[in-house]
Amino acid sequence: MDEKARYEPMAHGPIGAAVKAAMPHTEADPIGVHAAVLALFSAAINGKVTQPNGSPVVAWTALVGPSRIGRKGFALKTAKAILKDSVGEWLALREEGGISSGPSLVQTIWENEQDSLTSEGGPDSRTLIIDQEWQTTLLLTKRCPKYGGILRTSWDGGRISNVTKKDGKRVEATVEQPALGFHAHIQPPLWAKFISLTEAQGGTYNRILPVMVKKSKRLRKRDYKTGNSLDEIKVSASLRLAYEWAMKEPRRMEFTDASADRHDDISAEYEDMLEELPDDVSCYFERADEQVLRVACILTAAERKTLITVKALEAAKAFVDYSIASVRQLVSQTNVTKSRTVQPLDVKIRSKLETYGGEMTATQLYRSLSSRYTADQILNTAEDMADVEVEERPSRRSGANPTIFRLVPVMPEPEPVSEPEPAKPAPRRRAPAKKAAPARKAATPAKKATAAGSPPAPRRKAARKGVPSKKVGA
What we know:
The protein is an alpha/beta fold. It has two domains: 3-339, Rossmann fold, CATH 3.40.50.300; 345-407, Arc Repressor Mutant, subunit A. The chain is built from 17 helices and 14 strands. The chain has a five-stranded parallel β-sheet, with helices on both faces. Helix 8 packs across helix 14 and helix 13 crosses helix 14. The longest helix is centred in the C-terminal third of the chain and has 30 residues, at 310-339. The model is unreliable at 337-341, 446-454 and 461-474 (pLDDT under 50).
């Protein structure tokens, strides 16, 4: 299916028209551009436009695709070019990078609200997080147990707070109605690595709409005057008027009778689907019906209307359905990755040491492996490895000496020299038996002859008893 056919069902109103108008000048996936526009525009009107029940209308999106091929950055730049005339100035003031801890998130939103206390519009906590290296942030957020809870509460528009100490005094930063927007980029293998099933079941990631993206085309730079095709994108005047309309006074969206019935049907459809799917898939879109309503409210606000139409709901559902399909593909890739043979611990230790140049402290090694293994397991395994040396390094500082893990060369054992087997003696042949010769008469024993030329040695007579033997004279 080509890009136009994929995007057409979810294109609606000024947002759909702006994305279509920008496509000849961008290499990004139109659905990726659409997702980025939804995130940025909804963050700008967050707190000003609400759902029928008073909840925020903000939509959080994440583009998932390979580096370069996915054109995730191209999609974000295209969305900013579309919204430059409408919310560009606000983005310059309220856009934040990746925030990896709950207290930092509260502090950032609180400071933005404090900066606006003297403004004409009153307190304004609107903040937009754009994280183009989401995998790095996900790795760091695992160290903060508060992060997920504060993120979820901010999506719901609930009260968030953080307590710090300054000059020995207790200081509490509280935001009663946070207005947080979120947009992130990540690669498919890193999604599988950093987003676990446990975290998804906790509810954090069913508040984010992941969208698989790929490049739509390749553009030639010489076809554009400036060499940058995005300069040719015309800003959307309709979205500028919609932003001004939203900021003029609080707007609350309303159902028509037809749209209320249709949303009830959509909710029932998703509930039936959730019952048939495994938990590792369904936990990502347990709030799919609310996501449809949020997107429909954003599309309706872009039309400067407060009555949600069935067409807006259908377009929103098409986008959420595409996100669900993206989730199923990502979970499938995750399961394939997990089904591969798990490397033993000694192989992992050796790999980590090689990555760090052959030497790591105990703290470094434990942190890199402690998500699956205890410190005792790592130490015992390393001590049994022939090519790893574990030693305590003396330190001048107080406290325990640091433990160092180091790769050492291992001399190969000499191969045993095989000795040639001794040659087997040839079998002896038996000589034929000889006939016995006739017995001869025994000859008279001859006197023993002395050696030629040497006189026989003189005999000594035995000395008689009592008679002294004669001495030879000198």
